[in-house]
Amino acid sequence: MREIRTVACVGAGVIGGGWAAHFLARGFRVHAWDPAPDAEEKLRTLIDRAWPALTEIGLAEGASRDALTVFGTLAAAVEGADFVQESGPEKLPAKRRLLADIDAAAGQNVVVASSTSGYGMTEMQADARTPGRLVVGHPFNPPYLIPLVEVVGGELTEPWAVAEAAAFYRRVGKSVITMDRELPGFIANRLQEALWREALHMVANGEATVEQIDTAITEGPGLRWPAQGPCLTFHLAGGEGGMAHMLDHFGPSLRSPWTRLTAPELTGELRDAMVSGCAEEAGERSIAELVAERDRAIIAVRRAVAQARDRGSR
Amino acid sequence: MREIRTVACVGAGVIGGGWAAHFLARGFRVHAWDPAPDAEEKLRTLIDRAWPALTEIGLAEGASRDALTVFGTLAAAVEGADFVQESGPEKLPAKRRLLADIDAAAGQNVVVASSTSGYGMTEMQADARTPGRLVVGHPFNPPYLIPLVEVVGGELTEPWAVAEAAAFYRRVGKSVITMDRELPGFIANRLQEALWREALHMVANGEATVEQIDTAITEGPGLRWPAQGPCLTFHLAGGEGGMAHMLDHFGPSLRSPWTRLTAPELTGELRDAMVSGCAEEAGERSIAELVAERDRAIIAVRRAVAQARDRGSR
């Protein structure tokens, strides 16, 4: 695998800038480019604001904001880089053009990853000359603090590029989900987007306010999700019977109009997939152990959030 | 308002038992009833498992597990109670029957709250003799740790009952959202259920595994939601432009097939409602302050969860 010392960040808005902050904190040289006239100023402000958090987490040896260089052209930013992270506007024609331009300027076998929120690489790589090195590397905001990166290639992507991107992200402290097939919105955004769209419907219909929606999450299920995802959460809602009891008990609710999204039919096959998936994820942890872990986590999360808010108000 | 010293918990499974643990920890006497033959043993086990967490949070003066009495009949459990929390099976005919039975046994003007996950009180109170005191008081699992309770009445519910339930829940440390209209699934469950249904579709179609879904949330957006709900989260995704920039920038993505839930049309009215809602929720906090608050919270949440997991594995 190519040794990576310099990362090019193409597009330096909230996501591209967040990536730049992350790579700088991990000790890399960062080459940035963004066509907006005030891009450099905004980028440096974003990095300055992120730096206290990054310092608290712990900077890599030699990490410095001085390792950032902002270039006047895309080609100049990309040509000396060992890895390229593209975070341009979320419009398909623009993505396709930008990725083709990056591909034309990048060194041989340099992996080019796109931060796209949901486009498939197959549709984005169409105009590139060497599409085999183009992958999706989808982060969450802020990329310097949220570990998740979803990695997936397109039809023309070569397996080595997917493997290299995943390995690189892991090396810089990310939690990587490598997907073996393209899916619009990937995994996390499909889940998050379903929730978001329901929220928009509710506001549009006067069913709830923005603040009620946020409170419903921060004081409710949002407190469980950092520790246990939606599946394991419901595994515990079933008591000692776990996911099996939960689906048998609450299964009929899936036909209730509790959201505008219609549920799939709860076939025996789906039920069994959920049950065995939870068993696999739980591993050797019993329901009692998972409950204890969840309870410790919720208490700690509530305290952590309260302290973080409190520090801000002083 | 009636002085509340004794709470009846009707139904003592995961939710009813969790409520019992909460009320005991807050220093109340709890009268429980559940028709299952092993209900008392399971209930006492659940409370014993919850007690370390409740002790760590801090018990109310005089709080004791000995303040729990399990009764052999519903009427005996309910008749001496000052507040009734119903947590029976999530089936409409059963709910309707159970609430009518509770109503027949409960003292005058005692509020009866249902833990239903999503039925409307209007459809549940149909068989009760004095339906005016029946309200929904919907908690989240575990009720002894997650603060949110959604309170809403039915068509026949009298306003004093809604007000009393909300006041009582606040007094016992809950975060209450009082809804002024019935909505199947209320607010939090509509949001959570949309996410859950998308997850079930993905498993049913082999698009993601249970573990990938959980990881996508715990390592991704789930880390933001305890501190800032979905609206404020996206307010910050817009950079200095906030929700307005976010909707103008990512608005077209709402038409992308990123989830099976179709988005509402992003009318000017909806856009403005989201923008002003975020402005109201943010209050005097600037984007920079919100970003700093979020960053502190994410770091603290990640540490808290890592420690909670670590303590479990020793």
TrEMBL record, chains A, B:
Pfam families associated with the record: 3HCDH, 3HCDH_N
Highest taxon above the source species: Bacteria
MF (Gene Ontology): 3-hydroxybutyryl-CoA dehydrogenase activity; NAD+ binding
Sorted UniProt keywords: Oxidoreductase
The protein's Enzyme Commission number: 1.1.1.157
One GO BP: fatty acid metabolic process
Entry coiled-coil feature ranges: none
Family: Belongs to the 3-hydroxyacyl-CoA dehydrogenase family.
Protein name: 3-hydroxybutyryl-CoA dehydrogenase
